[in-house]
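#onboarding

Welcome to the new folks! Below is a worked example of what a typical request in this channel looks like: someone posts a single protein sequence, and someone else replies with the predicted structure as tokens. Don't worry about understanding the tokens yet, we'll cover that in week two.

Example request:
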Amino acid sequence: MSKLGQLKSSANFSAEDASRQRSELLIARKRADELSHDLSKKIAELELLQRRVADLERQLTDERKDFESQLLFQRQEVNRLKEELEESFREFTDLMNTKIALDQEILMYRKMLEGEESRLNLTPAPRDSPFNIPVKRRRVDGDFEGDESNASLTGASYSSSRTRFAYRVSSTARGPVEFFKEQDTHGKWIKIHNSSNDEMNLGGWELVHEADGHETRFKFSRAFSLKPGALCTIWSQDAEGNSHNPPADLTMKNKSFHPGTDVTILLLDADGEEQAKCTVKREKIRPGVNFDRKSGVRAHDEVSVLIGFNFS
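Example response:
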């Protein structure tokens, strides 16, 4: 009986040990599953970071190419201006040398003439003035009377006719990014404004400018954004005083806005949906109409003056 008891005790101990080992095996498998799940998450995060790095590298490459092209253009412009300056200096030098030679020649001939006059005891003749030019007398009705060398300008009268025009600027916006209340009417620049308290990402947005049948498109870079309350000016490539200082100032490459009397400007998001619209129209103003700059109307006067001279 004692032998049987020992065997039972040994069997119970072995069963408990096997149960404990199975529990440890389950715990180890669970831990392995957790580690495998964590590894999958880390791999996904690594792939996301790698894609982000690749996007940043592409963006850096695009920005570098843009900077290099602008730098090349600036260098070419500087070289062109240097060549023009050197050519102007050469022309100026040639003209100065010619002037000095002519002055010396005139002085020599004048001394020779004065010597001959002194030798022959001649009275020097009055020098002709370039202002003693015969002119034709004319009546008020436009008929000519003849040539006289002592005709003089006695009076002038003029009449003027004035036509007033104004450029009316109106804009609408679906969101916080809108066109500024003042826009250039000569196609030099366009201003947009972020009226919200949040930074707005305009990556991939597009500006469409249409003026009298001419269309110009400008696309913002993928990383472009406007800070709260900030203004951004998009300049034509040939505009005087333009500057490229993102995000406040952007200069288009090889593009210009066309001036016109009927201008429509659209701001499209990355999906091509209209977010803001601005129209600039030239209107003829009736006489006696007052202008208020706060209303968005800017007046320009076109004055034609007819001047008639009376000779006697």
